[in-house]
Amino acid sequence: MANLMMRLPSISLRSFSVSASSSNGSPPVIGGSSGGVGPMIVELPLEKIRRPLMRTRSNDQNKVKELMDSIRQIGLQVPIDVIEVDGAYYGFSGCHRYEAHQKLGLPTIRCKIRKGTKETLRHHLR
């Protein structure tokens, strides 16, 4: 098992442990460590991602089904965007991809994580 890290410009994350296996057909995890800079690509458990807009929005079920078929065949191609605020993860984009993973029974989803503040979070909830 190899540990991989991807650094993109802009922020740092606290130490984060992830598994190097993937159950959704995607490439292995690219994980984080302390002192990283910029968004990091990691596989997060679905239950760790809070979806505050799910209660107010509905997804196009045809699009979810198409994504399910695609994920089964080639894996997730584009990670969802997640904001980490005080150790909690919030997803505001990738609603259809997230639901497709849920319906497929996949335990994790590839995420691009950016560190944010409570103010950032309030901005996304408007």
Automatic annotation (TrEMBL):
InterPro entries: ParB/Sulfiredoxin_sf (IPR036086), ParB_N (IPR003115), Sulfiredoxin (IPR016692). The keyword Cell membrane does not apply. ATP binds at G94, C95, H96, R97. Keywords: Antioxidant, ATP-binding, Disulfide bond, Nucleotide-binding, Oxidoreductase. Residues 42-121 form the ParB-like N-terminal domain. Transmembrane segments: none annotated. It comes from the Eukaryota. The keyword Flavoprotein does not apply. GO terms for molecular function: ATP binding; sulfiredoxin activity. GO terms for biological process: cellular response to oxidative stress. Belongs to the sulfiredoxin family. This is Sulfiredoxin. It comes from Microthlaspi erraticum. The lineage of its organism: Eukaryota, Viridiplantae, Streptophyta, Embryophyta, Tracheophyta.
